[in-house]
Write a structure and sequence with these properties.
two-stranded antiparallel ribbon; Peroxisomal Thiolase, Chain A, domain 1; about 400 residues; alpha/beta; 2 domains; globular; single chain
């Protein structure tokens, strides 16, 4: 039976190119510290990327790391960190009532490219093909690796929603809790994208891959001289609980999920549709029983592509009109595009604003594109405001998938 029970975030586990926990990540955003660095990938050569440097062996043996995947390691690290952060007594949790719902942009490309490279060294002898290939490349792998690591016997799967996947993971967790299918949800998104040369080659072929003589300035949403996407890896997983359960154990509550929506453009493989984006935001706001002027922070999806940034700003202009108290920022300017984990990392970076009232800025916007001008776009320096009660988090993806999540400051 579906209920309308309030769902809250009680734990955050993450790894990003500029921090391996929420405190580090938030400090980097407030200090204007980019996580983009030089990178070289097989066949494609030199480029820039957002690279995570988390202690994988903190929660996995070297054997498990070797037989598993990079996406799986990211997911395992983030899930364990979220559990620790939540303060929940894991040994007393009924793991048959825990669900693992992880958004992914794609999965299996890295492993397939590696296997083909290896088999080539042996004149394509199939006997050299890894017997781990199948479990490594199935779509549910990152979520499945979490269940193996944590002994979770409840439902697990990955949600493929391109670059809107992290938000979609949150939505799935909320819905499964309200359906009563699980009592605790590990929900979020992960990406291992930088470990495949194909994604760099494809974006380069589209003239959509960022470049800059200073790597830390390569990701520059809204800037007049922006020239494309910086590919990044990363992950963020939340502990989601029903408010009644969280209160029983006196849990720390980061935020409440009060609204969400998903829809489809149905117009193009890659070009966004601002009308559908607007509709998605409007649906999420309606579900949250709010008006647009009540939103304090809008975390933009903007990836630093010319049309993508403009289209999202067009949608936001239509949504906000003359609203004066809604502020707009962007996290990809710091960490690049973390694909399936983009939305959840971007939400995480803004969550502390509920406590301190500080909005982190967009960096690298040295000359604002006139087509991206909008009121209250925070550039270069953090902005302190009187109160933050609602954050709207945008995530849009290829083949026209849009996903919006609204988080609220927890109130009794």
């Amino acid at each position: 039976m579906y209920t309308s029970e309030r769902i809250v975030i009680t734990g955050v586990g993450l790894t990003s190119p500029n921090g391996n926990n929420l405190s580090e990540f938030r400090q980097a955003l407030l200090n204007g510290r980019s996580g983009i660095s030089p990178y070289e990938v097989r066949y494609f050569g030199k480029t820039v990327a957002g690279i995570c440097n988390f202690p994988a062996t903190k929660y996995q043996s070297r054997k498990d790391i070797r037989r598993g995947t990079r996406a799986g390691s990211i997911a395992v690290y983030c899930a364990n960190e979220a559990i620790v952060d939540s303060g929940i007594n894991w040994e007393q949790v009924d793991r048959s009532q825990v669900g693992v719902f992880i958004g992914i942009t794609e999965h299996g490309n890295v492993e397939t490219e590696n296997e083909i490279y290896n088999i080539k060294q042996f004149d394509y002898d199939c006997k050299t093909w890894s017997h781990f290939h199948n479990p490594r490349t199935v779509a549910n792998n990152p979520a499945g690796e979490v269940t193996l690591n944590l002994g979770v016997t409840g439902a697990h799967y990955c949600i493929g929603a391109a670059c809107a996947a992290g938000n979609a993971g949150i939505i799935q967790g909320v819905q499964m809790l309200r359906l009563g299918e699980v009592d605790l949800a590990l929900a979020g998104g992960v990406s291992e994208s930088i470990h495949t040369f194909g994604i760099f080659a494809a974006f380069a072929a589209e003239n959509a891959l960022a470049s800059h003589e200073q790597p830390e300035k390569a990701s520059r949403p809204f800037d007049k001289k922006r020239n494309g996407i910086v590919v990044s890896e990363g992950g963020c997983i939340y502990i989601l609980e029903r408010l009644t359960d969280a209160k029983k154990r006196n849990a720390k509550i980061y935020a409440e999920i009060v609204g969400y929506a998903m829809n489809s453009d149905a117009t193009d493989f890659v070009l966004p549709n601002p009308e559908r984006q607007l509709e998605c935001m409007q649906k999420a706001i309606k579900k949250a029983k709010l008006e647009p002027e009540q939103i304090n922070i809008i975390s933009t999806h903007a990836t630093a592509t010319t049309l993508g940034d403009q289209q999202e700003i067009n949608a936001l202009r239509s949504l906000l009109k003359n609203t004066k108290n809604t502020y707009i920022n962007n996290t990809k300017s710091f960490i690049g595009h973390a694909m399936g984990s983009a939305g959840v990392l971007e939400l995480a970076g803004n969550l502390p604003s509920f406590e301190d009232g500080v909005i982190h800025p967009t960096i690298n916007c040295d000359e604002l594109d006139p087509a991206c001008e909008i009121q209250n776009l925070i550039i270069d320096k953090p902005r302190k405001i009187k109160n933050v009660e609602y954050i709207l988090n945008n995530s849009f993806g290829m083949v026209g998938t849009n996903c919006v999540v609204i988080a609220a400051k927890y109130k009794q």
